[in-house]
Amino acid sequence: MHASPLPLTRDIVLIGGGHAHALVLRKWGMAPLAGARITVINPGPVAPYTGMLPGAIAGHYSRDELMIDLVRLARFAGARVVLDRACGIDRAAQQVLLSSGRRLRYDVASIDIGIASGLPDVPGYAEHGVAAKPLGAYADRWEAFVAHAPDAPRLTIIGAGVGGVELALASAHRLRAAGKAPQVTLVERGNAALQGIGFNTRITLRDAMLKHDVTLLTDVTATEVLADEVVLSNGQRIGSDFTLSVAGSQPQGWLQDTGLALTDGFIDVGPTLQSSDPLIFAAGDTAFLTHAPRPKAGVFAVREAPVLLHNLRAAVAGGEMWQYRPQSDYLKLISMGGKTAVADKFGLRTGGPWLWSLKDRIDQKFMAKFADYPKPRGVGIPRQAAKGLAQAVGDHPLCAGCGAKVGSTALEQALATLPAPTRADVVAGRGDDAALLQVGGQLQAISVDHLRAFTADAYLMARLAAIHALGDIWAMGAEPQAALAQVTLPHLSDALQADMLAEVMRGAAEVFTAAGADVVGGHSSMGDELSIGFTVTGLAPAPKRKAGAQAGDAIVLTKPLGTGVILAAEMALERPSVRDTGGLMLGEIWQACLASMDRPLGAAAALLRDQATAMTDVSGFGLAGHLWEMVQGTGLGADLSFAALPILPGAEGLATRGIASSIAPANRAALEGLVEGPSGARKDLLFDPQTCGGLLATVPMAKLEQVMQALQAAGETAVVIGHVTPGTAKIVVR
Question: Same CATH fold, 116-250+331-374 and 10-114+251-328?
Answer without folding.
Answer: yes
